[in-house]
Write a structure and sequence with these properties.
alpha+beta, Hypothetical Cytosolic Protein, Chain: A, 3-stranded antiparallel β-sheet, 3 helices, 19% strand, binds zinc ion
Length: 115
């Protein structure tokens, strides 16, 4: 009896959800935050660290939402140490206000003709 159950692996690009705005997209534009085994919360730009991870857009608006409502802490199931919180806030402060919109300016159905 073949007991090998093939894990369902979608072939398309894996999608991640920003914990702040709940937008789903390919990893591009999102940064991984990881809870280390020591209970620290760190940015994980490489996405390779072990531990529970969450994704947030590289945008101030999303970071503020993620930190303000402690969504990040909830997502990672950890109380974010003040020191790490400071670091994340500093990171957020250096980001553009809104998610980078790479060549996708035309989304949604608004027609805004102006001459
Ligand atoms: Zn977002």
């Amino acid at each position: 009896m073949p007991a090998t159950k093939r894990p369902l692996r979608p072939k398309h690009v894996p999608l991640r959800t920003c914990i702040a705005c709940r937008t789903t997209e390919a990893k591009r534009g999102l940064v991984r935050v990881v809870r280390t085994p020591e209970g620290r919360v760190e940015l994980d730009p490489t996405g390779k660290h072990n531990g529970r991870g969450a994704y947030v857009h590289e945008a101030r608006a999303c970071w503020e939402a993620a930190l303000k409502r402690d969504r990040l802490g909830h997502a990672l199931k950890v109380a974010i140490p003040a020191e790490d919180m400071d670091r994340l806030r500093t990171h957020a402060a250096g980001l553009p206000a809104a998610p980078a919109d790479e060549g996708q300016k035309e989304r949604g159905g608004t027609d805004d003709h102006q001459r």
